[in-house]
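Long-time lurker. I teach an intro course on protein structure, and each term I like to show students one example going from raw sequence to a predicted 3D structure in token notation. This year I'd like something fresh instead of my usual example. Would anyone be willing to generate the tokens for the chain below so I can use it in lecture? Attribution to the forum is fine with me.
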Amino acid sequence: MPSWEPSAFYPDPAIQVLDPSFNKYRLPLAGVDRLATGTRWGEGPVWFGDGRYLLWSDIPNNRILRWDEATDRVGAFRQPSNMANGNTRDREGRLVTCEHGGRRVTRTELDGSITIIADSYNGKKLNAPNDVAVASNGTIWFTDPGYGIKGDYEGLMEPFEQEKKNVFRVDPKSGGVKVVVDDFVMPNGITFSPDEKKLYVIDTGLTEGPNNPAHIRVFDVDIDAGTVSNGKVFANNFSPGFTDGMRCDTDGNVWCSMGWADPKEDGVRCYAPDGTLIGKIHVPETVANLTFGGMRRNRLYICGSTSLYACYTSAKGSMKP
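-- Reply from a regular --
Happy to contribute to a lecture. Here you go:
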């Protein structure tokens, strides 16, 4: 596991200001903490404010872990997890999970039972859902690149049945599954802007070849109609590395993961709503995903490859609940 020592100095040099606007979100008396270690590939963090705990996936170990804020203890929340990857919550507080093992998206009901939200489209199995976001109207939006069926480490090697790597939307009332975007190489992280008028989706197509994209795209979105339009590249200066997961804060900034290339770039990047890179948070591991949490939703939880990190900020996460 990577060596780790928290900074003995404030402000923490791991938190890098690239534009003066980032000073609004940097706390001079807060640094990067490592909360837990021992995962093989950490992913999909989701905050449960009502219980003051964080869940995150350890995909190769086939488990979802739980870190408790009050006790600082880590334990297994679900094992086996069906190779769970991305997680979020709906507006009723239920856990929504992308499962590589079942090639499906599920919801954990308040009584602990599991409901299948989507496992097929047009009579064929989904590839392997990766990340998921739930809008305020209850619709569920998820990406389906298929990383989980490309081998036997993060899932089970199986043939692709969906011809394209789609972004899907599920109507919670009818259960209907529809394609909202079908021109990604490998759609990955997904999130909404605070006003839900923008949809951000990461393309990690670079994993499939050097001429493929490593960028974030943004779309105008109508969550009720289930349509997107005016797609364009929001940020694209990631190659030869790439970003994987992201979240927005209440000011509309996009905080995204970074890794896979230069170790000096491993960590988190923060982009202003206009796409300007304004700040970085450095950790000694490739970062897959992140989320805001804590009692004031101002603590950024960061999934490194083997460890869970956290950093207090002056930003507040926009996701609800």
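Some talking points for your students: The chain has no helices and 27 strands. The chain has a mean pLDDT of 96.
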